[in-house]
Amino acid sequence: xxxxxLSGGVSLCASEMGDCKLKTIPQGTLKxxxxxxxxxxxxxxxxxxxxxxxxxxxxxxxxxIAETVADYNATMSDLRTTxxxxxxxxxxxxxxxxxxxQDSEAGCAYAQWKENIGNAIDDLEDLEIDDIEEIDEPDLFxxxxxxxxxxxxxxx
Length: 156
Hints:
By secondary structure, this protein is mostly helical. The protein has one domain (3-11, 27-142). The protein has 3 helices and 2 strands. The protein has helices at residues 27-95, 99-103, 105-122, and strands at residues 3-7, 10-14. A two-stranded antiparallel sheet has the order 1-2. A hairpin with a 2-residue loop joins strand 1 and strand 2 (10-14). The radius of gyration is 37 Å and the shape is rod-shaped.
Protein backbone atom coordinates (compact mmCIF):
# COMPACT_ATOMS: atom_id res chain seq x y z
CA UNK A 1 0.00 0.00 0.00
CA UNK A 2 1.63 3.33 -1.04
CA UNK A 3 1.93 5.96 1.66
CA UNK A 4 2.42 9.67 1.10
CA UNK A 5 4.58 11.12 3.89
CA LEU A 6 5.12 14.80 4.43
CA SER A 7 8.06 14.16 6.77
CA GLY A 8 9.07 12.31 9.86
CA GLY A 9 6.55 9.51 9.30
CA VAL A 10 3.52 11.80 9.39
CA SER A 11 1.12 10.34 6.85
CA LEU A 12 -1.17 12.69 4.99
CA CYS A 13 -3.00 10.04 3.05
CA ALA A 14 -2.91 6.42 2.07
CA SER A 15 -4.80 4.58 -0.57
CA GLU A 16 -4.63 1.43 -2.64
CA MET A 17 -4.41 3.49 -5.85
CA GLY A 18 -1.79 5.98 -4.59
CA ASP A 19 -4.06 8.97 -5.19
CA CYS A 20 -4.39 11.46 -2.40
CA LYS A 21 -7.31 13.79 -2.03
CA LEU A 22 -5.87 16.12 0.55
CA LYS A 23 -8.16 19.07 1.22
CA THR A 24 -6.67 20.22 4.49
CA ILE A 25 -3.46 19.65 6.39
CA PRO A 26 -4.27 17.84 9.61
CA GLN A 27 -3.67 19.76 12.84
CA GLY A 28 -1.13 17.13 13.98
CA THR A 29 0.87 17.61 10.79
CA LEU A 30 0.80 21.40 11.21
CA LYS A 31 2.17 20.97 14.75
CA UNK A 32 4.83 18.62 13.39
CA UNK A 33 5.83 21.22 10.77
CA UNK A 34 5.98 23.87 13.49
CA UNK A 35 8.21 21.64 15.65
CA UNK A 36 10.52 20.90 12.71
CA UNK A 37 10.85 24.55 11.69
CA UNK A 38 11.53 25.51 15.30
CA UNK A 39 14.20 22.79 15.51
CA UNK A 40 15.75 24.04 12.25
CA UNK A 41 15.91 27.58 13.64
CA UNK A 42 17.76 26.32 16.74
CA UNK A 43 20.06 24.08 14.69
CA UNK A 44 20.70 26.99 12.32
CA UNK A 45 22.00 29.04 15.25
CA UNK A 46 24.33 26.14 16.11
CA UNK A 47 25.57 25.99 12.51
CA UNK A 48 26.14 29.76 12.40
CA UNK A 49 28.04 29.62 15.72
CA UNK A 50 30.19 26.71 14.49
CA UNK A 51 31.03 28.62 11.28
CA UNK A 52 31.90 31.75 13.30
CA UNK A 53 34.18 29.71 15.58
CA UNK A 54 35.83 28.04 12.59
CA UNK A 55 36.40 31.42 10.92
CA UNK A 56 37.96 32.76 14.13
CA UNK A 57 40.29 29.75 14.22
CA UNK A 58 41.11 30.26 10.53
CA UNK A 59 42.03 33.87 11.29
CA UNK A 60 44.28 32.72 14.15
CA UNK A 61 45.95 30.13 11.91
CA UNK A 62 46.43 32.67 9.11
CA UNK A 63 48.15 35.02 11.58
CA UNK A 64 50.40 32.23 12.89
CA ILE A 65 51.30 31.13 9.35
CA ALA A 66 52.08 34.74 8.34
CA GLU A 67 54.32 35.12 11.41
CA THR A 68 56.27 31.93 10.72
CA VAL A 69 56.57 32.71 7.00
CA ALA A 70 57.95 36.17 7.83
CA ASP A 71 60.51 34.57 10.15
CA TYR A 72 61.42 32.03 7.45
CA ASN A 73 61.78 34.77 4.83
CA ALA A 74 63.99 36.87 7.14
CA THR A 75 66.34 33.91 7.49
CA MET A 76 66.18 33.33 3.73
CA SER A 77 67.18 36.97 3.22
CA ASP A 78 70.16 36.50 5.53
CA LEU A 79 71.20 33.42 3.55
CA ARG A 80 70.85 35.32 0.25
CA THR A 81 72.95 38.20 1.59
CA THR A 82 75.68 35.83 2.83
CA UNK A 83 75.73 33.91 -0.45
CA UNK A 84 75.77 37.14 -2.48
CA UNK A 85 78.77 38.31 -0.45
CA UNK A 86 80.55 35.02 -1.21
CA UNK A 87 79.64 35.31 -4.90
CA UNK A 88 80.91 38.92 -5.12
CA UNK A 89 84.20 37.96 -3.44
CA UNK A 90 84.58 34.96 -5.76
CA UNK A 91 83.76 37.16 -8.75
CA UNK A 92 86.29 39.78 -7.68
CA UNK A 93 88.92 37.07 -7.14
CA UNK A 94 88.23 35.59 -10.60
CA UNK A 95 88.25 38.98 -12.32
CA UNK A 96 91.51 39.90 -10.56
CA UNK A 97 93.32 36.89 -11.96
CA UNK A 98 95.21 36.88 -15.21
CA UNK A 99 93.46 35.81 -18.38
CA UNK A 100 95.90 32.93 -18.69
CA UNK A 101 94.76 31.58 -15.29
CA GLN A 102 91.08 32.15 -16.20
CA ASP A 103 91.58 30.01 -19.33
CA SER A 104 93.42 27.29 -17.39
CA GLU A 105 91.82 24.16 -15.99
CA ALA A 106 91.87 25.69 -12.48
CA GLY A 107 90.33 28.94 -13.76
CA CYS A 108 87.58 27.10 -15.66
CA ALA A 109 86.79 25.01 -12.58
CA TYR A 110 86.66 28.18 -10.48
CA ALA A 111 84.34 29.86 -13.01
CA GLN A 112 82.03 26.81 -12.96
CA TRP A 113 82.04 26.80 -9.14
CA LYS A 114 81.22 30.54 -9.10
CA GLU A 115 78.42 29.99 -11.63
CA ASN A 116 76.98 27.22 -9.46
CA ILE A 117 76.93 29.60 -6.50
CA GLY A 118 75.09 32.20 -8.62
CA ASN A 119 72.53 29.61 -9.76
CA ALA A 120 72.00 28.48 -6.17
CA ILE A 121 71.42 32.10 -5.12
CA ASP A 122 68.79 32.44 -7.87
CA ASP A 123 66.86 29.58 -6.23
CA LEU A 124 66.79 31.29 -2.81
CA GLU A 125 63.23 32.62 -2.99
CA ASP A 126 60.94 33.92 -0.31
CA LEU A 127 58.12 31.66 0.74
CA GLU A 128 54.57 32.69 -0.06
CA ILE A 129 51.55 30.94 1.42
CA ASP A 130 48.02 32.11 0.67
CA ASP A 131 45.67 32.69 3.57
CA ILE A 132 43.14 30.01 4.33
CA GLU A 133 39.78 31.23 3.11
CA GLU A 134 37.06 31.79 5.66
CA ILE A 135 33.85 29.81 5.40
CA ASP A 136 30.96 31.76 3.93
CA GLU A 137 27.94 32.08 6.17
CA PRO A 138 25.47 29.39 5.12
CA ASP A 139 22.11 30.23 3.62
CA LEU A 140 19.99 28.78 6.40
CA PHE A 141 16.36 27.76 6.35
CA UNK A 142 14.00 30.71 6.87
CA UNK A 143 11.26 29.51 9.17
CA UNK A 144 9.27 32.74 8.70
CA UNK A 145 8.09 31.52 5.30
CA UNK A 146 6.35 28.63 7.07
CA UNK A 147 4.74 30.67 9.84
CA UNK A 148 1.02 30.93 9.42
CA UNK A 149 0.91 28.11 6.84
CA UNK A 150 -2.78 27.89 5.88
CA UNK A 151 -4.13 24.41 6.63
CA UNK A 152 -6.35 24.42 3.54
CA UNK A 153 -6.70 26.10 0.13
CA UNK A 154 -9.78 27.96 1.32
CA UNK A 155 -7.67 29.87 3.85
CA UNK A 156 -5.10 31.17 1.33
